Amino acid sequence: MILISVNIPESYLNTLENLVTGGRFPNRAEAIRTAVRDFIKEEFYRAKSEMDYIEFGAMNTIRYKDNDGDWVTHKVIK
């Protein structure tokens, strides 16, 4: 694993401490890893469900339906 540093409000830290002392997580790092993992999964599946069709290939494009049901195509620039 890679070590990172983040600044969070004191109230978040207090809540993390309460989760650890309450036995919900073994330590703060595990609580934060769980929160990040859950956030990434939720955002990934939300984004995936908003795109009816995704195409990455030789053309390097993304294609999806917008809110009006029209197809939108974007070229991916690396």
Automatic annotation (TrEMBL):
CDD domains named among the record's database cross-references:
RHH_NikR_HicB-like
Enumerate the Pfam families for this protein: RHH_1
* Matches recorded under SUPFAM superfamilies: Ribbon-helix-helix
Domain Ribbon-helix-helix protein CopG: residue ranges: 4-43
GO biological process: one example: regulation of DNA-templated transcription
Gene3D superfamilies, sorted = Met repressor-like
InterPro entries per record: Arc_rbn_hlx_hlx, CopG, Ribbon_hlx_hlx
Q: What is this protein called?
A: Ribbon-helix-helix protein CopG domain-containing protein
Native source species: marine sediment metagenome
